[in-house]
Amino acid sequence: MKTDTIAAVATALSNAGIGIIRISGPDAFSVIDRIFQGKKGEKLSSAKSHTVHYGWILENKTIIDEVMVLVLRAPHTYTREDTIEIDCHGGVLIVKKILEVVLQNGARLAEPGEFTKLAFLSGRIDLTQAEAVMDFIQSENEFARKTSLNQLKGAVSKKVKNLRERILYEIAFIESALDDPEHISLEGYREKLSFSVEEWIAELEQWLDTSKNGKILKEGIKTVILGKPNAGKSSLMNLLAGEERAIVTEIAGTTRDILIEHITLGEISLNVVDTAGIRETEDIIEKIGVEKAKDYAKEADFILYVVDSSLPLDQNDEEILSFILDKPAIILFNKTDLQTMIEKEELEKRTKKQVIPFSAKQGIGVEKLQQAIKTLFFQEIVSLDHSVIITNMRQREALFQALESIKLVRQSIKDKMPEDFYTIDLTSGYEQLGFLIGESLEEDLVNEIFSKFCMGK
Predict the structure, then answer these.
(1) Cβ distance 330 to 376 under 8 Å?
(2) DSSP state, 25?
(3) HSE (CB half, 13 Å, CA atoms) of 365?
(4) pLDDT at res. 146
(5) Distance CA 148, CA 218 (A)
(6) Per mean pLDDT, which of 144-153, 164-173, 327-336 is the most reliable?
(7) Which helix (DSSP H) or strand (DSSP E) does residue 428 occupy?
(8) Residue 345 zone, left/alpha/beta (φ > 0; ψ -120 to 50; rest)
(9) Strands 329-334 and 302-308, bridge-based pairing
(10) Omega prior to 328 cis, within 30 of 0
(11) Which residues, listed in sequence order, are joined to residue 272 by a DSSP beta bridge?
């Protein structure tokens, strides 16, 4: 762990009202004393913690900018080190100049994510909380924001640490009983441990069940719009996007290539793909577009099937139905402002999918669609305030490995193996959970994780 003093710009490098330069480390106060002149001539190295000071940043006695400086003393800081934050005017040139002066006076430029890495290495936060910091910054919808905030507050950490404590207790009990059989009996212990193991397996499986939908909801649901030509797919895309992104005409086959748009509907983000209308065609270019649409449909997390309710179902609709039967899908019963030629109830009964009356032209049914998507993807996820929701693939893998280890314990119990066999897999499960929260990580992996963070965080 490096103990030198680091500095970086903590705000975006763009012209703004305010820019912030953060300094952290044992020499943070001596650095600021060399370049700061307060209104009263005070030295910030003697200032009280969590105080703000008005003055100027100087270079060779020349004023660079008028600033406010925040003094934070260890250990009550983000990194648990002495920390200085300089609030200056937000012009790019000004911010860069002040950072340059800071670096010339005893600090070095921080690596990406180094402030958060210091918080992790100092034990202020664990790895799930550290990863939640970046997820929180990058969140693009309400679900991602709430989930990241929940993890940042330690929701995952508390649950994992609690489970590790229970596993460790059993490891210690077995080891103690094997070392001192005269005073600690293992009689009936197999049945007692079996009950605990089943409880742990249920917990781990519940957490893992949240991970698939959790990851999708955080990053955006890969959504493909399918339908025949002129069913209203492009109108739907424009309605969801809130602007004219796709060309809409009365001519069938207008959309021939793939159009992708990131759309946020309340707590949900959709990575929406508008595709060519699926039909038999001799047009070479349109045929390529139709094949692309089918390929995207196969890889989709979710399909929006737009049905032109003013026309009866035909062979092209039958082909589209084959794509949605085994996937999460919602059928939009479009053009309900016209006379319908399809029975909504019959379509629901046949497909076992929700059918929503819809009019892209009039904007009818958008709220119902949003609620239907939430129900479809949130149904396995309980309240955000009380649930561990896994959205990170590294965390998912660690949980999976922990689950596999605990299942091996269950098998050993069923096979009536000696108790010392249990400790091998119990220890493995304990270590995998430690890997999840960062209590047993190699330095290279730590560096790899934090290298993905933004500069100054």
Answers:
(1) yes
(2) S
(3) 20
(4) 77
(5) 9
(6) 164-173
(7) helix 419-437
(8) alpha
(9) parallel
(10) no
(11) 223, 261
DSSP string computed for 73-91? -TTSSSSSS-EEEEEEEE-
Task: Decide if 225 contacts 292 (C-beta within 8 A).
Answer: no
Widest pairwise Cα distance in the chain: 88
Residue type, 23: I
Q: 254: which residues sit within 8 A by CB, 6+ positions away?
A: 229, 234, 247, 248
Distance CA 405, CA 430 (A): 9
Query: Which DSSP state fits 277?
Result: P
Residue 332: which of 239, 259, 267 has the closest Cα?
Answer: 239
Could you tell me if 443 and 117 are in contact, meaning their C-beta atoms sit under 8 angstroms apart?
A: no
pLDDT in tens, 219-278: 788 888 888 887 778 778 877 776 554 444 443 444 445 688 888 776 778 888 888 777
The residue with tokens 């053009």 is: 335
- Beta strand spans in 299-383 (E): 302-308, 329-334, 354-357
- The answer to whether residues 399 and 206 touch, using CB atoms and an 8 Å cutoff, is no
pLDDT confidence of 389, banded at 50, 70, 90?
confident
CA distance 350 to 395: 39
DSSP output for 172-240? HHHHHHHH-TTTS--TTHHHHHHHHHHHHHHHHHHHHHHHHHHHHHHH-EEEEEEESTTSSHHHHHHHH
Structure tokens at 456: 């100054």
Task: Output 65 or 386, whichever has higher pLDDT.
Answer: 65
Burial group, residue 210, by CB count within 10 angstroms (0-12, 13-18, 19+)? buried
Q: How far apart are the first and last CA of the chain?
A: 17
Q: What is the pLDDT of residues 105-124, one digit of tens each?
A: 999 999 988 998 998 888 89
Q: How far apart are CA 79 and CA 223, in angstroms?
A: 40
What DSSP state is assigned to residue 364?
Answer: B
Instruction: Give residues with Cβ within 8 angstroms of 177, minimum separation 6.
Output: 184, 185, 186, 189, 419
The pTM of the full predicted model, rounded to 2 decimals, is 0.69
